[in-house]
Amino acid sequence: MTIEKSLLAVFSDLEPAADAIEQLRHLGVHDDCMNVISGVPVTEAMLGRPNQWTNVPRLAMGGAILGFIAGLFLAFSSPTSYEIQVGGQGFAPVPVAIVVVFELTMLGMLLSTFLGVFLDSYFPNYRPMHYVPEVSDGKIAVLIECPQADEQKITDALKKLGAESVQMAEAQHL
Amino acid sequence: MSDKKHHNPEEHFREQHLMLDPMPRGQMNDMVMESMHTTSWKFWVVAAILAVISFIGLGVDWYRLIMEGQGLAGVMRPDYWGIFLVNTVFWIGISHAGTFISAILRVFKAEFRRPFTRAAELMTTFGLVQAGFSIFMHMGRVWLSYWLMPYPNQRQLWPNFHSPLSWDLLAITTYLLSSTMYLFLPLIPDMAMARDRSTGWRKTFYKVLALGFRGTEGEWAHLRTAMNIFAFAIIPVMFSVHTIVSWDFAMATRPGWSSTIFGPYFVIGALHSGMGAVVMVLAVVRGTMKHMKYFIRPEHFEGIARLMLIISMAWAYFFFNDYIVQWYGGDKWTKTLLHWHEAGPMGWMWFAMLIFNIAIPWSILWNKKWRSTPWLLFIVGLLINVGMWFERYIIVPISVTINRMPFTWRLYQPGIEVPMGIGTVAFFILLYMLASRLVPLIPVWEVQEGQMAHSLTKFGRETVMTVSELE
Amino acid sequence: MTQKISRRDFLKLAGVGAATTAVLTGCGPAAKFVTRQPYLKMPEYTYNGESTYYATTCRECAAACGLVVRTMQGRAIKVEGNKANPVNLGKTCARGQTTLQGLYNPDRVTAPTKQGRAKDLSGSAMNWDDAVATVSDILKKYKASEIAFLMGTAPDHLFDLATDLTGAMGASAPVRYGALSMFEGRATLAQAAQEMFGQPALPFFDLASADVVVSFGANFLETWVSPVAYTRGYSKLRKGHDRRRGLFFQFEARMSQTGSVADEWIALRPGTEGLVALALGKLVAEARGGSMPKAFASVNVNEAAEKAGVELEALHVIAEEFAKANAPLAIVGGPALAHSNGVETTKAVYALNAAFSSSFFLSPLAPGEDVYHRPASAQEMSEFVKKLESGAVKALFIHGVNPAFELPKSLGFEAALKNVETVISFATFPDETALLSDYIFPDHHALESFGYQRAYTGANASVLSGLQPAVTPFVDTKATADVLLAAAAQAGFPFPYADEFAFIQGKLQQFVPIAGGSFAAPEINAFTAFFQQFGGWWKQADLVAPTASNGAVNAPEAEFEEGEFFLIPFVSPTLGEAGANKPWLQETADPTTTVMWNTWVEINPETAHELGVENDDVVKIVSAAGEVEASVYLYPAIRPDVIAIPFGQGHTAYGQFAAGRGVNPADLFGAKFNAAGDLAYAGVKVRVEKTGKKQYLSRLESKIGVYGEGLGEEH
Amino acid sequence: MTTIDLNMVGAKGALVEAAEGKWGMVIDQDLCTGCQACVTACAMENNIAFVGEEDAGYGRSMHWIRIERFWEGHYPHVKMTHYQPMLCQQCGKAPCEPVCPAFATVHSQSEQVNVQVYNRCVGTRYCGNNCPYQVRSFNWFDYNDERINKAIATLKHQFNPDVTVRRRGIMEKCSFCIQRIHKAQDKAKSEGREVADGEFTTACAQACPADAIVFGRVDNPESLVSQLMAEGHGVQHLSELGTLPRVTYLVGGQ
User: Fold this and answer.
1) Inter-chain contact B25–A103, Cβ cutoff 8 Å?
2) Spans of all domains in chain A
3) What's the pLDDT tens digit per position in C132-178?
4) Which of B144, B222, C210, C658 has the fewest CB atoms within 10 Å, measured from its CB?
């Protein structure tokens, strides 16, 4: 078993970071072993990274379906449990149901979208993590996991490509 | 058109446009943090006064209202509905501004939105809180309001979904939850930013709210996707909320209320008051908080003011649409109602509504210089809000005077609603003031994102601003 | 036969229960005495959900409507009309309905009290033994001629007892009076009947059999004489005969509630009612052909119409209808009687009936009476007050009337009372007179009382309406009859009755042998039981149209005081003379103005405009005798030279719901009387002064919707 | 294959039942003298609170039945319109019902009247707003609480135990004296028969000295109300709104 090391390279701009990622790939670091931390939403394409997989749309759809079903229940099923006639209207008129179903569908969709972010991103998460606060100042940090043997080689390469600093990443409380 | 003083077009652009006046991110962070930390004694005096007013209005008076009965308010037969519902509609209207700015402008990629989306979204949430208060104030037996929630119970008695009020409950709940979530999602990166630059209790506060956000590619991707979904999905929710509020009236068998145009008319009215309120808030924020003159510039006021002008025109269009159909119909009760609006003892309010909602915005906002002047816009926004409050007052207590039983017609005279309504205003401002010291009012990452996307390009002899599509 | 039965068993026997249609058979209850038992021992009819019903008589006015009181667990829950009683046949008026709010009123006198003429109800309660001793001491202490009784309008068993007692003592007979009897002009009605038909009886206008009715100021649908009976009659008139709806015309200066339902309401100058009646008679006689009755011969129709301010055409139209009618009827009442020419006016209308109507009768006499025994007229009261003032009366017993409120101030009752050494009030309520008394020995409320009352009009029967307790006394009260009987016994007057019930039985004894009554019983105990079960005893009376002496009738001009406006005071249709202490009556809207809880002044909008006053402006109404202040109500149906004020409010005492509320228009009345001795209060003229104050009247109606206020469509 | 219940989804527009009446009232305005006996009878029967001068003048009186009247013309040719007792019309399709979020006012399928469920009411007052007849009254204060209205301490002895005493914050209205309906039905049932026409009546009708108010079964052609309605000159107020009122006004005369 090889000992894995985490390196954290900080770049001040997009270009060097993108170059570094390309270089790292040449050095045999797999994309899965890299992660980019940024203070602005830097798209994967800008850094030449593979697209991130996100479950949020699927979760949103799932929530919408659940909300839709809940809406159907409230609109069509709940009035039958205790039938009360009002204003000569049907027990569960369709026009009324449309409003109820719409609201609950939207509620289900938006709630699950929100929860989806939490689920996908493991929020809330207060454990120690690899991080440099400079990221929120606009710096771009690349987090690399590599065998201990490659550490020096990668550090040198990154420095050459304009990394402001390359350090051993230590998990810390944010 | 450019100002003669600036021979260098770039310098001119920088001064005009936040997006072309980039600063290092760290510096912007510090400015935003500093704006939260800089609090003068005046702030606390105002906050204390507002706290007292809120306590009287929402504490003391509400307690009395609950313990003694709705009779403390000015309601009676036939004015079963009074200022509480006026305020409910009014606050829901205010709350529409945030969503409109952050969702619709986001969907349509209106770049000038960037620095003030959060300021507007906060209004949405806090406005809805006041709307909730107002509707609960209105209830005769508020301690039983949980009966309106759909929950399983041993009698298997569910709420009556035939009632527009039930729809309202669903819609407002949905809207309150989703607008709060929509406020929170883009706040997470800023909370992380604040976390990284705080100590003490603030550190804990931001740490908890930042949820452990670092800014990894995954986190950004999930967040961006979610925000996109929200931006699209919350728009119909927003429209549905005020449409359903309008249905509370339009579904009724009352002269003047039974109108199919009420839905869009209310939505546009909500935007009208909401935009007015946003401009007021921005003017105050810009004028009182440190560094805000950098982030919030005349160009932003100008952009909002243009929207205000369009919305005012749309409101006038819908108003006239509603009016002429009612008038043309010739139903005697509706005729009486219109006459009552215009020539009754509260006729001054009807005319004031038209002046504040139409005449004043139109006569000021057409001028680019005027509409870029924050204090002037503050006044226009204030008047629009007064006008829109009048509009709701005319729709609710003044209109319900006239029904099909002339023997019962009576003029509404407000009672405890007034201090309680003032209480909601005070509480809204208080919440906003406190939030302005706790929540980064400027979404720094969004500003930075925008600044990255903007650049100056030369077409022939002219230098123009171009935006690259980064997302 | 001496075995005692409990009061509740007795009441149970007497109650008109749902299942008691199978009534007592023959022998009747074994005893006449009733004992009270604690409620710990619950009889079965006090079970949850079971109601018991008692037939009794409404004492809110003197009409003697029968009531059936629904009780549950010892509480009176609701009153309904007694269907058996010929006066009201199961119907009630608003005042009768709220009688329970008098019973359970928070302000009742709760115990015998040494009032000592204190300003407020004094707290010094006594016990009933001392109270009886006090009365007995008075009976002993003073000479018979120094003792006087003042009682309410209703001729009841207590009045009979007081008559017997004063007779036994050699004192002067008790005097009966009530504000309603003054406003109704009973003396005038009787006097005119005496002069025309030789009988001093109250008239009975049988609306039910008429098809065209012309009324001269009679407010017979409101408070007048027997309003429920007249409303029943009115209903029959409108339902008509052979599906022909009866017509109704009203002549009066201010549209009363009665006038408001008329087919034509014709405003006339106050005091010209008799003249118009004669003119109408002439037109009708001309239309019908035949000989001209002497009464109408001399009248000049055109002149009469002009004097009365009535359009000639209207008069012709009404005369035509009257002439065409199968059963026309003319009614007179209300302020028309309260003029100096009241008797002549009444006679003119009687003459109209005598000539053309088959629906006009004299009221049958009440059981046991051979002549109509009317309450005292205002003039007689004025003499009575003078007697009090002279100090000739040393002890005054007051029951069932509140003269300090009901007598016009100008008669000086309050001042006169100061010259009476001892005043004893039997009021159940701390009214103005009770507060001016030395002692208050509260009687039971009507619903707690035994008794009977004679009905004088409203039915084609001779009616003795019965009272019995529906509930045990709510507060520490004692039947005045018992107090008087016990005191008389203590004072050593020979009096054959042990208590109130014995007295009532003694008085009912005379009806046991009479055949043809509403029920028959072999002996008095059974008779009493039936009497209470049915709520009274009555006997069909053959109504005979009276024959008039075909003499000439004059219509002299009414005399008026100096002043700007005619004043028409009218008894509030909702409050009556004594309803102001009942909160629900206060909150019941006046039918014509919809005002609640206060007094208003009705002014024609044109007049108000000229005076520069608006709705809710407080104006001062000044007459020669006094002045009052009240808010203006712009009343569309009143002559411009007339203002009207309702009577019923303006109490200074009488409980929390009445005290300090509104004004009493009787304060404006002078002490002028008509030929029959009734107060000529309609001869008062007043002037209106602005005060600059504003007090909003509580109206049920909307000023916006009804009068267009704020809609730019005002008067 | 399942079939869709058209009643359920309201595709038929309304439940069939709603079109049929059961209890109804006829008010002959030509007979009404405006005497207010019905008003007080109703108050006494149904424990209706009084509210005092100020509130009464501000449209807060609790009357379940009120007598309206208007004026026509100007003096001297002024006329008062017929007195018009206005009470809950017990609509077959009541506008007040669907708008209540709590099902506090509903259509009674057994009695075909509009019932107010006091203990379910949360006081949104939507029903009052939506009642075209404006006959609903709201308990603006605890008028019937003896701690607030001291007079109730003794007046409460008169309260009808068959009728709920309402507290603050809830809506109330004419119930067609449903307690009397139920009593009569219970009695008839225990005796194994139908309720006879005229066997019982509402408090207002019972008091009415002019017999202007008649109450009974509109679905029984033999009943007095049905016969009066059949006479043809009856009108139902605001029937153009499709409310199917159960109170018919006769405006005969003139």
Assistant:
1) no
2) 4-52+126-168, 56-121
3) 999 999 999 999 899 999 999 999 999 999 999 999 888 899 999 99
4) B144
Q: CA-to-CA distance for D228 and D214, rounded, in angstroms?
A: 9
3-state secondary structure of B325: helix
Instruction: Provide the pairing of β-strand D105-107 with C565-571.
Output: unpaired
Superfamily of segment(s) A4-52+126-168: ACT domain (3.30.70.260)
Chain B / chain D CB contacts < 8 angstroms: 143
> Is the minimum CB–CB distance between C390 and chain D shorter than 8 Å?
no
- Are C271 and C683 in contact by the 8 Å Cβ rule? The answer is yes
Which parts of B330-416 fold into alpha helices (H)?
A: 332-343, 347-354, 360-365, 368-371, 374-393, 399-401
Structure tokens at C639: 């002559």
User: C480-491 vs C500-508: helix axis angle to the nearest 10?
Assistant: 100
Q: D132 and B404: CB-CB below 8 Å?
A: yes
Q: Which class is domain D6-250?
A: alpha beta
What kind of fold does domain B9-467 have according to CATH?
Formate dehydrogenase/DMSO reductase fold (1.20.1630)
Residues 401-460 of B with CB under 8 A from C: 401, 405-411
Chain A: partners with 3+ C-beta pairs within 8 Å: B, D
Q: What angle (nearest 5°) sits at the alpha carbon of residue C48, between those of residues C46 and C52?
A: 45
Q: Give the pair of three-digit tokens for residue C699.
A: 């109206």
What are phi and psi for residue C292, nearest 5 degrees? -85, 120
- Residue C35 pLDDT greater than 60, yes or no: no
Min Cα distance C590 → chain B (Å) is: 14
Nearest to residue C138, comparing CAs of C147, C130, C126? C147
pLDDT score for B210: 92
Indicate the Cα dihedral angle C656, C657, C660, C665, nearest 10°.
Answer: -140
Record the tokens describing residue B177, joined without a space: 């939850």
CB–CB of C575/C586 below 8 Å? yes
Cβ atoms of residues C72 and C52 within 8 Å: yes
Is B141 in CB contact (< 8 Å) with chain D?
yes
- Out of A21-30, A111-120, C309-318, D36-45, which region has the weakest mean confidence (pLDDT)? A21-30
pTM over 0.90: yes
The pLDDT assigned to A13 comes to: 84
Look at residue D1 and tell me whether its pLDDT is greater than 50.
Answer: no
Residue B339 has its nearest CB partner, among C700, C701, C711, at: C711
CB C113, CB C137: distance < 8 Å:
no
CA of D53 vs chain C CAs: smallest distance (Å):
6
High-pLDDT (> 70) share of chain C, %: 93
CATH of range C5-107+449-479+515-540; options 3.40.190.10, 2.40.420.20, 2.20.25.90, 1.20.1270.10: 2.20.25.90
Tokens for C467, please give them: 């009272």
- The tens digit of pLDDT for each residue in B52-81 reads 999 999 999 999 999 999 999 999 989 999
A–B contact: 3+ Cβ pairs < 8 A: yes
**Whether B233 contacts B153, CB under 8 Å:** no
Sign, CA torsion C697/C700/C706/C708? positive
**If you ran DSSP here, which 8-state letter would residue B146 be given?**
G
CB B56 within 8 A of CB B408: no
Q: How far is CA B89 from CA B140, B169, B274, in A?
A: 18, 13, 12
CA angle, B138 then B140 then B145, to 5°: 85
Please name the residue that has the structure tokens 């039938």: A83
Query: Residue B386 — φ and ψ, nearest 5°?
Result: -60, -45
* Rg from Cα positions in chain D: 19
Distance CA C350, CA A87 (A): 58
Residues C95 and C82: beta-carbon distance below 8 Å: no
